[in-house]
Amino acid sequence: MEKRQGKIGVTTENIFPIIKKFLYSDHEIFLRELISNAVDATQKLSALASIGQFKEELGDLTIKVEVDKKKKTLKVIDRGIGMTADEVEKYITQIAFSSAEEFIEKFKDISEEDQKSIIGHFGLGFYSAFMVSEKVEINTKTYKKGPGTKAVHWECDGSPEYTITEGNRKDRGTEIILHIDDENKDFLEDYKIQELLNKYSKFLPVPIQFGEEEVEEEIEGEKDKDGKPKTKKVKRPRIINNTNPIWKKNPTDLTDEDYNKFYRELYPMSFEEPLFHIHLNVDYPFNLTGILYFPKVKNDIELQKNKIQLYSNQVFITDSVEGIVPDFLTLLHGVIDSPDIPLNVSRSYLQSDANVKKISSYITRKVADKLLELFNKDREKFEAKWDDIKTFIEYGMISEPKFWDKAVKFALLKNTEGKYFTFDEYKAKIENFQKDKDDTLVYLYANHADEQFSYIEAAKERGYDVLLMDGVLDNHFINTLEQKFEKSRFARVDADTIDKLINKEDKMPSKLDEKQKEALKKDFERNVDSKQFEVSFEDLSETDAPVLITQNEFMRRMKDMEALGGSGMMGLGGLPDTYSLVVNANHPIVTKLADEKEDAKKDEVIKQLYDLARLSKNLLKGKELSEFVKRSVEIIK
């Protein structure tokens, strides 16, 4: 073969500096590109063999990755279809840069995020090698027979000049040799290459070999004194990938243990089994396979995210899927694989891609259908998992209208007695007796059963039911429920006295007249923090507490939501917490106080009642708590 020299139709001042720069923040991607090319070449040969166009033995199709630290080289070697000299000329130089001018022009105007999609749009996958190399060589030999099928050697030093000469490769396939530059010498470290292969090539459909591993092997015919076969340590090629992951298999051929084993393969550092899984498999109107797992959702939602791995034909794309799948689905774990998702595109492109949007809608529907199936199949088992998955479901119902429409059939409310109800069931339970004078249905709830115990008991004594809404998203979820439920409102059980929350027209008679209340109110105001507490009197039952602390539902909810980032523009975070100090005019201690003539005795009792009320709300701390304890001891004496 004659030596050929040529020049790529661009100048070193424009194209190659951009190649070195445009994926700078993600330049490790070069290895994914080269291995993907090797896999593609291998699969093409297998396809030709399957239709009879390649009649020789395929043999070992393992792709090899080799590092030589002394020579500063990294090799990717395959036994795929290979290339002729004309094909090298065509695919490596002409086609890759046929749009070079357009490439340069577009590069000037696009955002930094969209620069990451340039490789895919312009067929520059192979040239990503120049991001880490001072020189790149190709040794290749085509699978074809006949004239013009000799081995070929191509070489380029990162300038537009290249050379093509006859090569010395004996076997079909392609060997890419990267001469790693000094800036990227970490890619000559075994641990770094292993890390990248685990990240990008873990589930590729062709075996990938990197280095060796030591294993125990039985010695044929030899046994120890216990009659067990003797073993010896031997080295064998290390295959780093699982070529047939279970998401590619038929769900009917798999067991729960298979799914749990694969979960451990995906997340080796996770010590908890998933609650259940969904196996995705669709071929119209797009191709999609995958497995999604429901983990136990902890209180810190952000820590739960970025656990879904996105693949295209088993090639890893990203584990940052926000904007690609609905936000609430990012709490799930697992794998999504679709050949309809382009490999080399930016996230902004993915977010606007029509196929990706269809995939997102499909996954939302499948997840909802699976949850409904589980609910209908075994409600008791579903209820047992509810506390671990409710954050995920509430997140979906808050953020995705289509998910809400399906989730209302299986979403549950839990009361303080630990019983579960669908929305319709709970409405039927309370609608005859938890309405106020305006005929509005009142949903009472607690967000801390222990701290609000006395308020819950007061509600129960009147025959009311109280929901437990103690999840990380429940403040937001309550707002959503109020918007969706007709003529209904939610009130935390300590937002006011229970009789005011339900707001019945019939009132309990008072044991104190207005003059007594006014005088006693001044006594209380003298002993409490007037900036934090507003004193009021109400005619409650004698069995209710003598003093209650309540907090306005609207203001408290707004402050809670602002703490979660839900109403930052309202500026409520800087306001102090304010409470109502409700004095029970019918409690024996209070009626006795009204007759007390000595201010010192009256003040002592008021301080004690005030502190007891604060203690029940976890508002008594530090010096004031210490003084309360001392005073309590003296009273006992």
Write the layout of secondary structure elements.
Layout: E1 4-7, H1 15-22, H2 29-50, E2 63-68, E3 73-78, H3 85-94, H4 100-109, H5 118-122, E4 133-141, E5 152-156, E6 161-166, E7 173-180, H6 190-200, E8 208-223, E9 229-239, H7 256-266, E10 276-282, E11 288-294, H8 301-304, E12 308-312, E13 315-318, E14 333-337, H9 347-352, H10 354-377, H11 379-399, H12 401-407, E15 412-414, E16 420-422, H13 423-430, E17 441-446, H14 453-461, E18 466-468, H15 474-484, E19 488-492, H16 498-502, H17 514-527, E20 533-538, E21 547-550, H18 553-563, E22 579-584, H19 588-595, H20 599-616, H21 622-636
Parallel strand pairs: 2-8, 12-14, 17-18, 17-19, 20-22
Antiparallel strand pairs: 1-6, 2-3, 3-7, 4-5, 4-7, 5-6, 8-9, 10-11, 11-14, 12-13, 15-16, 21-22
* Distance separating the two termini: 111 Å
Report low-confidence residues grouped into runs of 5 or more.
10-14, 113-123
CATH architecture classification name of the largest domain: 2-Layer Sandwich
The CATH topology of the largest domain comes to: Heat Shock Protein 90
Characterize the largest beta sheet: strand count, sense, and whether it forms a barrel. 9 strands, mixed
Classified in CATH, the superfamily of the largest domain is Histidine kinase-like ATPase, C-terminal domain
Number of strands: 22
Shape assignment:
elongated
User: What is the structural class?
Assistant: alpha+beta
As a percent range, the share of strand residues is: 15-25%
Give the overall average pLDDT.
85
